[in-house]
Design a protein that fits this description.
single chain, 43 strands, five-stranded mixed β-sheet, Immunoglobulin-like, elongated
Length: 751
Amino acid sequence: MADATNVFKGVDLRCEANNSEHHTSVISKNELIVRRGQPFTLSLTLTKPFNQDQHPLVISAKTGRRPSEEQGTASLFGIPDAERSPKAKAVWKAELHKDSTPQKGNLMLTITPPADCPIGEYILKVKHMNEEMSLAKVVVLFNPWCPDDSVYMKDAAEIHEYVMNEHGSIYKGSINYIMSAIWDYGQFEDDMVPICLRILDLNSEHKKNPSADVSARSDPTYVGRVVSAMVNSSDDDSGVLFGCWDGEYRGGVNPSYWSGSYAILRRWYNSGSNPVMYGQCWVFAGVMCSVMRLLGIPTRVVTNFNSAHDTDGNMLIDKYHYENKPSVSYDMIWNFHVWVESWMKRPDLSKEGRFDGWQVLDATPQEKSKGMFRCGPASVKAILEKQTDLKYDMSFVYAEVNADCVDWLIRPGLPTLKLSTDSQTVGQHISTKAVGFDMRVDITDTYKRDKVALRNAITRDYCRDGRNVTTLANAEMEEIGEMEEVKHTIETEEVIGGTEDEGTEEAGEEKEIEDDTECRGMAVNTAVRVAAGTIPPSPPVTMQFLEVTPPISGKDVQLRLLLRSRVVRNLSVHISVQARRYNGSSSVVIQREEKERTLNLGKALSIPIRIPFSTYFEHMRLYDSMEVLVMAMDKENPDDVYLAHNNVVLLDPSISVKVTSRTKVGRRAAGELVFVNPINIPLTECKLTLSGGGLFKEEVDIKLPDLQPKTRIRAKFPFVPYKAGMRILVATFHCSSLKIMKSSCHVIVEP
């Protein structure tokens, strides 16, 4: 060491072996990174024989600016064990390994940080015969493999998924159109340890009382709450990400641009902790998941479809409808909202472990908690048991999955009419990635016992669409020579006969059909709303949406509305299509029509709804979904009003990326993206962004030429993998006229 004296000859930290045993070799092989509650070994060589009875070896471990034994941020220990404060917390220990030869001055020390010590960077010093030297700088993380750690998890496969897995899927869309987005967590990339430790050091509690803050890092509950606040930058606290939901991303990038956490965290770190612009809920959750996994806390990303944002705490989401203008709601129903769950014990809620396990943590800045934008940890078990008075932010999270929706009709000159109270819509298809498989798992029953699916609603799960799993068989792969230069090449060609996903089925004409006739198409949503009084068991009017063709961006959207009645009804049917943001924050009317129709007994009326691409094109560049809202009014009984709505999320046109060569660490490889312009106008300002942990150190942007209608582009690109194993290549296509599109493929990289 730099300050070695005559007593101390040298030290070997055995970083590679220790890190391997502590599951941290994926982070570093040259810096000592260990997990609490688990021993590590180092070799200390003295210039003289060691006799512990005559001259003990005293070791100190300290973290933070004002370390103290009473706060667990300093520990004195050694061989034999050292004297310490009777109030000392989080005591380290050291033992002589059996392979030591004290008479020769060769000491192999086994050192164990306690399972309840604060995480962070420690300075270890050793003192012997009145001489002292620095022994090691060591980073200590949470340990889900240790039964005494408060983040202990029994199942090894779950630990691998929720701590060690660097890739995952985040679910987006709506309850009718569930889609997966690849996310590269990148928690073991370069500088992730100093990045995450800086996040902890910049939090507001550390600025107020650094000693107490560092001491509290022994508790994953506290750490999770700190990270929840620091991932967003809404409190002027040097947080990582600014949020933006207005569609105007000046000075930053569209949140859909991001495909992983590392690019965001690295940009924040390298800029001197200036917030990155911009994020939305899935980005906040992805970044938080990366930080928590690096720190050693098992964490998964969770999506709640039809998620309530209850601003006033009354557990109600009121929505006000008008005949001739967009609906208004001061509380909101998000198409989806994404948070994380982290695994930990909660002795602060129950000494018996009643509320241990998964805890909701949300970094998206929605509402303040104790003066800051943060949320949780809120016990999932407590949510299930409706224990809304427990900390932290239980009532808010409970409302996100359980609030009631109330629809009102505002009528000029007439009393406001209550259309319905709906206790089923909120909190549907709560989803996360399966352990060990790239599949969606529905975990709604962990949040609510009375889970009820929406009546006759069928969910289309698009999670596998556009996903290419590339299995690399050497016989089928071109191997690129070590010195061969691979350049970007771009080819375009006109596609004869249109694109392969171009549909031909039309919504057709309006018609009356027998009520028991089988309806073809997909029932994407059935919404029944009854105007006055108690909702009867079988309502007099029902409305159902049928999907004629999948709603692909660039194509006309084709739906059918099916109306039924038990009695003859003369109806005024108002159909409006509104462009909406996924968090329900604003809307604009795309098209509107009104029809006067009679429902006959025993007959179902089928009304086609066609939304031309030319009509929605400009709006859907800025918005996330189209809400088709139907209001049917009984002309003889004005207080009988029926409401139905369907949320349409446009699917991306077909786009594919694949690897076309053998992939090996340090060797050039090649990939290819193929895309056909599906619309009848040229695509301008085209750009391809490539990313993927282990494949690209940072994002690669490739400028593409304008793409004429019905023209295919084939972009070939080189890359040099730097990590072995299963990796994911993500290609992001940007242009002026369509929303950001992504495609991905799995890549097996040889060592």
